[in-house]
Write a structure and sequence with these properties.
This protein is of the alpha/beta class. Helices cover about 40% and strands about 20% of the residues. It contains ten helices and ten strands. Helix 1 (about 10-40) packs parallel to helix 4 and helix 6 (about 160-170) packs antiparallel against helix 10.
């Protein structure tokens, strides 16, 4: 079923500014809270894109450089790109000796047919015009290349996003003023993936699920990740009255405690991986 769109051209500029300002501030916190989770689907996504030793790979929305580093580990030749200068600086510090550049996913600073694969880890849901990113991926891909990306799976009960978002919806103040945004889980829907990739020219478009597990030593770390290490969720939580935020934290903690395995809390946070190919 198609995802309803409530995002229009007038919303692009304020949303872009909100995202850029947010990631400039949240780069380190995201790395600290989400890094061990985000890396789990990097290699599966690269395999989906048929990346191999010697493949020239562009990792768009690289963040701290997780997918770029994973590509390098299997002998590919990667370049990481991010629109946030703070993210690029963090990636260079986290993975020295690896190439990272600042740039726009929707206007890539590369020549036509420069790469064997374009990949994007958890970035499509942060773009104001993802159609342009798909078109740019097509442009810089060589014939036979692939564009693959990961997004968070749609929220479900007992899983990371489901736990936190349900707590915010039930116990938070709903009239928080934030810039309009595209549907966050749009590309967890295979039909939406095809709707954006196939008109661009990509074929053999497919979507698969990827199991991922957050492993924490404290039941408060899930709330802390959303409260400190994100952009929109962090703004939403930080705009709540203190009493509402504390209630949300209590509810999240209680649900996370249900997922304890010995001394560890294991929280499912699945991803959705998609790929399309530029035929020779």
């Amino acid at each position: 079923m198609s995802v309803p769109m409530t995002f229009s051209s007038k919303d692009i500029e304020p949303f872009t500014a909100f995202e850029w300002n947010g990631w400039e501030k949240a780069a380190e916190a995201y790395h600290d809270h989400w890094g061990a989770l985000s890396t789990q689907s990097a290699l599966p996504m690269l395999r989906l894109a048929k990346v191999k030793h010697g493949s020239k790979v562009l990792d768009v929305a690289t963040g701290a450089g997780y997918v770029t580093a994973a590509a390098k580990s299997i002998g590919a030749v990667p370049i990481g790109l991010d629109f946030s200068s703070a993210q690029v600086e963090l990636a260079r510090k986290t993975y020295p000796g690896t190439e990272f550049v600042q740039g726009d996913a929707q206007e890539l600073p590369f020549d036509d047919q420069a790469f064997d694969a374009v990949v994007m880890g958890f970035g499509m849901n942060h773009l104001p015009e993802p159609e342009k990113a798909a078109q740019e991926a097509w442009r810089v891909l060589r014939p036979g290349g692939a564009f693959a990306f990961s997004v968070w799976a749609a929220p479900a009960e007992g899983e990371g996003f489901g736990i936190v978002l349900a707590a915010i919806e039930k116990h938070g103040v709903s009239d928080i003023k934030l810039p309009a945004a595209p549907p966050y889980f749009r590309f967890a829907d295979p039909a939406e993936v095809k709707a954006i990739l196939e008109p661009t020219g990509f074929t053999r478009v497919s979507t698969v699920g990827a199991a991922q597990t957050w492993r924490h030593s404290s039941p408060d770390q899930v709330f802390d990740a959303f409260n400190k290490g994100a952009v929109r969720a962090t703004a939403m939580l930080n705009s709540q009255p203190e009493s509402a935020r504390e209630r949300i934290k209590e509810v999240v903690r209680a649900e996370v405690c249900e997922l304890a395995q010995g001394d560890e809390y294991q929280i499912p946070v699945p991803a959705s991986l998609s790929v399309g190919f530029k035929e020779s």
